[in-house]
Structure formats: structure tokens, C-alpha cells
Amino acid sequence: VLEHQDLQDLIKPQKVEFRSLNFNNTLHWQPGRAREARDTVYFVQYKVYGQSTWQNKDDCWGIQKHVCDLTNETSDIQEPYYGRVKAASAGVYSNWSLSCRFTPWRETVIGPPTVTVVHSNKSIILKLQAPRSPYKRKRGSNIPMTNYYDLLYQVFIINNLLDEQHRVLVYEGKGKVIKIEDLRPGVSYCVMAKTYVPLLDRSSAYSSRQCIVL
């Protein structure tokens, strides 16, 4: 009996947490302390906060991975959710390990915009596109994150004659086409952009840098 109890404790999943990027919501966990238990499988359930019954996630029932995609199960982005995971090894089942409460709208990480650069002789024109959620419109296209948040774009420019870290904010607003003018010909400029959510006071990571010589 003691060994059974020990194994239960040793295989119990650790650090169960939701991670979310643009509403792609996944539940992650780490294996229990019995790292040598190779045959361990995991079972995932989820529920909306306040509900009494847990739902099984069929695709994550008896899996060996340490991640489970709950994007479709957590699509009501204002609702708080919980996830939980238990492990089984050698016919022994652990207790459930519970995540913290997760509210997609508050906690998702919003990605940077997609930036397309077009240049003329003394100016750079940027076309910005909001990141997209995994949720689809009736016609099949993915709904942009601007449908869920009041997003601003922040555009930064690096003049390569100056210090690499010297990023200058040249635009903040909702425009999708930005023109940066009065630049010097023959100079290399790099541009990057972020999305910013004023309501949550949160910025995305930078978009990948795009450099051009005018």
C-alpha cells in the first residue's frame, strides 16, 4: 500500500498552467518527480469557473505529451476557466493537479503585427496587419485580434548609423498604412512594430526587423 501511495505522489503532474497567444489556449504541465516512469500517461479535464461538472478533453485522454490544446473549449474569451491533469503509471492513478483560473481575454499574449515594407526615394511605407485569432468568421477567414481589443500599433525605426538599441517611436495609432518621410537616401533604416492594448497597458513583442537602404 505504501508503494502505491508513493507512486501516486511521484507521478502527480506539476506546474499545470494555461499559456495563450492570440487566443491559442494550451494547457501545459510538467511530469511528476518520478521522471524515470516512462510509461506515464495523462488525462485532461476542463470547466468554466462556477460549474460543478468537469468535462473530459477526449483528444488529451491517456496521452504521453505534456501539453493539451484547449482553444476550442475556451472560446468564450470573457469566461474564467480551469484545467486539471492527472497521471497514470503501472495501473496507479495520481490525484488531479489544478491550474490557476484562466480568463483568455485578460491573459492572452497578443502577438506583434505583420509588417510589409514598401519604399520610395525618401520615405518608407509600412502596411500593418493585426495578428489573427484561431476563431473563424462564417466565410472561413480568421478573426483579427482588433475585433476583441482596441489595439494601437507602435512603429519604431532604427537608423543604422546610430546605436543598435536606439529605437525611435515614429508612430502610434490605428492606421494600417504608415508613411515615414524625410529620410536620408543611402542610409540603412530598420523598422519594427508592436501591438499595444491601452486598456490592459500591455505591449506585444517586437515584430521581426525589416531593413532597407533608401
TrEMBL record:
Span of domain Fibronectin type-III: 12-107
Cross-referenced Gene3D superfamilies: Immunoglobulins
UniProt keyword annotation of Disulfide bond present: yes
GO cellular component, one term: extracellular region
Keyword Plastid: no
Chief site of localization: secreted
Compartments, as annotated in UniProt: Secreted
Pfam family, one: Tissue_fac
Keywords: Disulfide bond, Receptor, Repeat, Secreted, Signal
GO terms assigned for molecular function: cytokine receptor activity
Function noted in UniProt: Receptor for IL22. Binds to IL22, prevents interaction with the functional IL-22R complex and blocks the activity of IL22 (in vitro). May play an important role as an IL22 antagonist in the regulation of inflammatory responses.
Sequence similarity: Belongs to the type II cytokine receptor family.
Protein name in UniProt: Interleukin-22 receptor subunit alpha-2
Originating species: Pelecanoides urinatrix (Common diving petrel)
